[in-house]
Automatic annotation (TrEMBL):
UniProt source species: Caenimonas koreensis DSM 17982
Protein's name according to its UniProt entry: Lytic enzyme
InterPro entries named in the record: Cell_Wall_Dynamics_Protein, Lysozyme-like_dom_sf
């Protein structure tokens, strides 16, 4: 089994939040349980994706504080000139933005305010009420004491559950097999839904492979 040690975290993410450091200090069980620690490739790909999504283990919540110029770049079909929405009306307003762009049934966000309440959180930026429900169901299979993440969404970023959720989400998306192929593009599509930040993810992978073989 491949181990992720506090020294590894300090090397790769020297500015990591204390809650994330604590999650890894006590989290090897989750890497083992979901097969991530079975080989160096899986560990390297998993860590690279997390380090990207969390900006070096510093981000807990998705940053939705976009400028009017940036919004059409991130959501080109939603905002003018290609989409219907005026970016000026959503700039630097994370709550309004999330409640609009994430008000989608496929995410499980059907009630007013769900978009912001279930915005991206944690090491792999768990997003959408349906994902919070799935995380609750998965972790309660073996851990009945796991929180209801729908009722308590901020538990997703806690030291007790942050790594468990990321590992379970990784496994649910079939990323172990994709990592075994050493395909950063396939892993990124599974995690991101597209290839946003691919260059940065590739750079993180180079760094994690230097640590884990």
């Amino acid at each position: 089994m491949i181990k992720v040690t506090p020294a590894n975290i300090a090397l790769l993410a020297p500015s990591a939040r204390s809650s994330y450091r604590a999650a890894f200090l006590n989290g090897q069980q989750w890497l083992d349980h979901y097969g991530i620690s079975a080989n160096a490739l899986r560990t390297a790909h998993f860590m690279a994706q997390m380090l990207h999504e969390s900006a070096g283990l510093t981000i807990q919540f998705e940053n939705l504080n976009y400028s009017a110029q940036r919004l059409p770049v991130v959501w080109p079909t939603r905002f003018q000139p290609k989409g219907p929405l005026d970016p000026a009306a959503y700039a630097h307003n994370p709550q309004k933005l999330a409640n609009t762009v994430y008000a989608r049934a496929e995410l499980g966000n059907t009630a007013a305010g769900d978009g912001y309440k279930y915005r991206g959180r944690g090491l792999l930026q768990l997003t959408g009420k349906a994902s919070y429900q799935a995380a609750t169901a998965e972790l309660r299979k073996d851990n009945p004491e796991a929180p209801d993440f729908v009722a308590a969404p901020d538990a997703v970023i806690s030291a007790d559950w942050a790594l468990a959720i990321a590992a379970s989400e990784w496994a649910a998306k079939g990323c172990n097999a994709l990592a075994d192929e050493d395909s950063v593009r396939k892993v990124t599509r599974a995690i991101n839904g597209g290839l946003i930040g691919l260059a940065e993810r590739m750079e993180w992978l180079k760094r994690t492979k230097a640590v884990w073989g």
